[in-house]
Design goal:
The strands form 3 sheets. The chain has a 4-stranded mixed β-sheet with strand order 1-4-5-6. It has a 3-stranded antiparallel β-sheet with strand order 7-9-8. The protein is 35% helix and 18% strand. It is of the alpha+beta class. The chain has 2 domains: 110 residues, Trna Endonuclease, Chain: A, domain 1, CATH 3.40.1350; 78 residues, Arc Repressor Mutant, subunit A, CATH 1.10.10.
């Protein structure tokens, strides 16, 4: 357990309020707990990556104020992976050496994701494509048809999977099942296309 469940202070509430007034695309999230609030586009981009990270159970924005003497800092995220809790900043971070100790005092690790790690490659673009459909729900019939077909074939291409969707828009249904972790697609090799392989997710 972490010790982050305490009454927010005025500084934290002010930062949250300012961040919540920002608008960054895509707007939908799937594993964000609480209000999605981002100070920068880079932080929003990292939130996209957290939503498609199979090891992430949940994440929240601007979770706490870390302090050391006169110094204070509010990390961009609290990320939960099983029993591990990590306070995360997007970008270079403030560079204060006391942050790791302050995070550990709260029962958390601390890490910084640099801009290059967030934006290099295809994963971010694919995550944004999928998260356009974050608020969709895939009907039970479509889900059963697709999972049954994948059980028989082992894997199918995106183009082959679209035929299984009869009750909702095929691309929306497919994206929904990826985000809900019923199925998985490769996010790092190329942009998602008709030839992208789709497999049933096995935990």
């Amino acid at each position: 357990m972490t010790s982050l469940t305490y009454q927010p202070n005025e500084v934290l509430e002010a930062v949250r309020g300012s961040a919540h007034s920002n608008t960054f695309l895509p707007r939908g999230t799937v594993r964000c707990q609480g209000l999605p609030s981002f100070r920068t586009q880079l932080a929003r981009d990292l939130g996209c990556l957290l939503d498609v990270d199979g090891d992430v159970d949940a994440w929240s924005c601007l979770p706490a104020t870390l302090s050391s003497g006169e110094h204070t800092h509010i990390p961009d995220f609290l990320v939960r992976r099983g029993r591990r809790h990590t306070l995360v900043d997007a970008g270079q971070g403030p560079g204060h050496p006391w942050l790791e100790d302050a995070a550990q005092d709260r029962g958390c690790d601390y890490e910084v994701w640099p801009k290059a790690l967030i934006r290099d490659g295809f994963r971010l673009a694919n995550a944004k494509d999928l998260l356009r459909y974050a608020r969709w729900e895939c009907p039970l019939g479509d889900r059963i048809r697709l999972l049954g077909a994948l059980d028989e074939a082992g894997s199918l291409t995106v183009a082959e999977c679209l035929a299984a969707f009869r009750e909702t828009r095929p691309v929306a249904g497919l994206a929904c099942l990826v985000l809900q972790r019923f199925i998985e697609v490769e996010l790092d090799e190329a942009r998602i296309g008709p030839e992208t392989a789709v497999r049933r997710r096995r935990d």
